[in-house]
Fold this sequence. Notes:
This protein is mainly α. The protein contains 14 helices and 3 strands. It is globular. The two termini are 24 Å apart.
Amino acid sequence: MSTERINRRKNGEQSKYFFDYSMLLIVLFLLGFGLLMIYSASSYTSFAEHQDAAFYLKKQARNILIGIPVMVMMSIIPYEKYLKFATIGYFLSMAVIPLVKTPLGESSHGATRWIRIPGLGMNVQPAELAKMFMILFLAMLVCKMGKAIRSPKGFLLMLGLPLPVVLEVYLLTNNLSSAIIIMGISVFMVFVASPDYKKFILITLAVVGVAVLMVVLVKTHPELLGFRGDRIKAWLDPESFAGDESYQTLQGLYAIGSGGVWGKGLGQSMQKMSFLPEAQNDMIFSVICEELGLFGGICIILLFVMLLWRMMMTANNAPDLFGAMLVVGVMGHIAIQAILNIAVVTASIPNTGITLPFISYGGSSIVFLMAEIGAVMSVARRAQRKNI
């Protein structure tokens, strides 16, 4: 072994082909577990609707098979090269979202949020593309602005630039949940880059104030909020509200409650048999808790905690600010989406369509999440191995 290689190892530098296998194993386990739970949650309705109990399983397996090469490719490419696509990606996101209003737009459950990709037989949700490129764009912006981000002008610029994308997602696709996630990622990245607690306390108070105002409006002028007012009503008192929103919430809670501590057993869920809407999508955590109990639900939460911990260690040991902020953005995306999904399923917040990362059924969401994981692994290849 050469002296240069020995010194490189002593300094904690890693080889060109270092891979964070612990992070990879967690992601692969979540994907494999997701396939198992998608089959369990959807087999009854899949056979009833498509005469194929494995209909959703096959489609999810295809999406994962597309995502794995994307993840590997993203991990091999030096993450510094992503800087070239940060600004382009920001404007590309704003250009792609309006395509949902063209003949390429695809609708499902009354919402047009997807774009059909001719020849591939799959749809892409522009909001998922926007999430990934927003992470890249803000990571680049933090590096360019430096300490200027701590000034009032820099702070407002960092939080203002995501707004056009957020508004497009909300107004053109009627997708409040994705708009919240994109804005949440932005706030999280700005907080890490500029931990001025006073500003964020004010932001938190403003968000709480808006939430209280919406609850008051629901009780006084419910017509102003439309169907979202109905969701808030269903959340406040699901048993007395007659509507689809309360039905899904109640069925999810019945599933969690009937599972107990240890669950009914894998494949033994009753609520998935046409009682629980979107069992393989937004409400899959309810089926997990019904079949595997509170123990299974806690194990999944711990796996997400372990994944976020690995990302935090990678960010702490990243060789430069761009790499650190890139990992922070992905970490914020997964954390926010997982927390919101579990909060919706447990009726901690009003119902909204948010999938559980890596586990819920979804096409473009899985592919883009795996691309983000690949970018994190690219940063991990350059981080100091002795510290992670």
